Amino acid sequence: MRAQLGILILATSIVQLANGFFTTVLSLRLGLEAFDPALEGIVMSAYFIGFTIGSVTCGRLLRRIGHIRSYAAFGGIVIAATAIMASVVELSTWSIMRAAIGYGCAGLFVTTESWLHAKAPSATRGKVFAFYMVGTFLALALGQLLIGALPVEGSLPFSIILALFAVALIMVSTTYAEAPPIKGEGKLAYAELFRSAPLAILGCFIAGMVSATFYAVFPAWMLVNQIPQTTISLFMLTAVLGGLAFQLPVGLLSDRLDRRMLLGILAAGVAASALLMIVMPRTYAAILPVAALLGGFMSTLYPVCISNAMDNVSSERVVLVSSRMILIGGIGSACGPISASWIMGRLDIDGVLYFMAGATSLLAAVALLRAFTHAEAIHEDRPFTVVAPQSIQLAPDTP
């Protein structure tokens, strides 16, 4: 049992290593290719469009053909699309293939997480998922380190990404799987969800938009401005590690404070960090601490929003709420890079930072206003959901 769970966690970490490396490589390559800068955001947003569609639809395939065959199918989609991107450097092709990769990655994560929930004993499930998320964060961090060590031009980065995806596919495809029980999905209208948890809906949208904007736009801007790849790698690594460092303290605070107040503080932290990024000197000593703060605040917006939503719905609708929030966060993630690319083409990176600060300031204002004008919902006894950068944490029991 431990060996099987360990293989699943290790394979997912390898997928996230490839994914984190791929995201930054693609952002840098878009800065090098002769694409229209205003359209580059379409390529970055395409991943989140595919990921969102996959998150809410791939469970059907999983229920029909089982875990191992589903994992192989989704992995095959990712590998094939990556190979096409390495062969055809064209904006529309990259956009379509990036959406396919997002769909495939969503399927891989849905398959893995439902598998872990089915196999992990209830007494140790929290520990298993703690290892799972720590592995995810560390893999994403290692992916940023690869940026500083490898060239982004040519086919070499694509070959490395293909190899990593293939290794993960081999590991999981040779593991015995026992399908979890199938649960009914039920129904939950978005209008009903909005009436129950309007703040969570706004927060999930803005959290997805801001996080996707950061990871899509910043590496490309730094490369265009002739910042060395090692510096880009260090900057992105710092942001990822900041996200990891914030998870535990924010999780503890989420169980002790009014979550609307905490969400307002975190959103204000994103806004302040973005504005600091504009005025601080462009030196390691000044920028890296701000990058860590920005990554930390960004990475905790979404899970606090999910916790707030769960406080406002009945326990039997947790999975339905999670799936709806995945879709809302994915829409925000898709909108972010497109809007940011358009803004950067006119106002440079400072405009993007003002965009991020404005969106999170709005969220902070709404959250704090509701905290002071509406009674606090009763905290539900459910674990704080850790969310890795560049991905949306999937509903625990989503098949």
Descriptive overview:
It is a single chain. By secondary structure, the protein is an all-alpha fold. The chain folds into 2 domains: 2-173, Growth Hormone, Chain: A (Up-down Bundle); 190-373, Growth Hormone, Chain: A. 80% of the residues lie in helices and 0% in strands. It contains 12 helices and no strands. It has helices at residues 2-32, 37-65, 67-87, 91-119, 125-149, 156-173, 190-196, 198-224, 229-254, 259-279, 284-311, 318-373. Residues 391-399 have low confidence and may be disordered.
Topology of helices and strands:
Layout: H1 2-32, H2 37-65, H3 67-87, H4 91-119, H5 125-149, H6 156-173, H7 190-196, H8 198-224, H9 229-254, H10 259-279, H11 284-311, H12 318-373
Helix pairs in contact: 1-4, 1-5, 1-6, 1-8, 2-3, 2-4, 2-12, 3-4, 3-6, 5-9, 7-8, 8-9, 8-11, 8-12, 9-11, 10-11, 10-12, 11-12
Give a brief description.
With 399 residues, the chain is an all-alpha fold. It is built from twelve helices and no strands.
**Would you tell me which CATH topology of the largest domain applies?**
Growth Hormone, Chain: A
Unreliable parts: 391-399
Strand content: under 5%
Our measurement of the CA-to-CA distance between the termini, rounded to an integer number of angstroms, reads: 20 Å
**Number of DSSP strands?**
0
Q: Major β-sheet, in short?
A: none
